[in-house]
Amino acid sequence: MSSTKTRQGQAAARAKARRGEPSPHDPRRLFAHALRILRRRDLTYAAIACAVAATVVGVIAVTGSNDRRPPIPDSRARPYTETDVCLLTGESGITAGTGGAVVWQGMRDASAETHARVSYTPVTGEQTVGSATPFLNGMLQRSCEVVLASGEEEVAAARLAAPEHPKVRFVLVGGTAVADDGGNVASVRADRAAVAHAVTAAARQ
């Protein structure tokens, strides 16, 4: 019986060979089968890699959105020094066409040269020396190293305060320097270039 099955198997193999069908043990058939297995594995590995990549991207996006660190400052921003230059003006402030506007322009020019911080405070309400004094005191409490005064009442208030603050440099616009000013008072005309020069000199002392 076994010999009969063997002869039948051999006959079937010869018939397949005549029809051009490869044998199960044909090397070409084995090689094609191996390639199919490798392709399936490659697809599986590729799918796993994509899933891992998507997870990593999601984690980065979440953690990045919760980052509370302050943004990096613009490197083009002007680096200011610790010198504060403050202007005391009448109630018109630095409105265009006023003396305060000219002084402010000169202060801005000096700031570009020295990198000092500049600010201004208008005296509101009644325009008297007594009304200007509280505004001036507020500027001095903010540690203004250089104080400018523009306006008759403002200049008078600054002149009275100068002897009590020898470390503060006062620039009186339109005022007149006096002999007992203690050396910390300068007077300039209401001119943009003159103000810029005086502020630059005071900021560098």
Kindly summarize this structure in a few lines:
This protein has a 5-stranded parallel β-sheet with strand order 2-1-3-4-5, with helices on both faces. It is built from 6 helices and 5 strands, in the order H-H-E-H-E-H-E-H-E-E-H.
Name some characteristics of this structure.
rod-shaped; single chain; alpha/beta; 205 residues; 6 helices; 53% helix; five-stranded parallel β-sheet
Q: Could you describe the largest sheet, including whether it forms a barrel?
A: 5 strands, parallel
Look at the helices and sheets and give the structural class: alpha/beta
Helix percentage: 40-55%
Strand order of the largest sheet: 2-1-3-4-5
Give the C-alpha Rg.
44 Å
Global morphology: rod-shaped
Q: What fraction strand? A: 5-15%
- First CA to last CA: what distance? 121 Å
Overall number of strands: 5
Explain the overall architecture:
With 205 residues, the protein is α/β, with parallel strands linked by helices. It is built from 6 helices and 5 strands; from the N terminus they run ααβαβαβαββα. A 5-stranded parallel β-sheet has the order 2-1-3-4-5, sandwiched between helices. It is rod-shaped, with a radius of gyration of 44 Å.
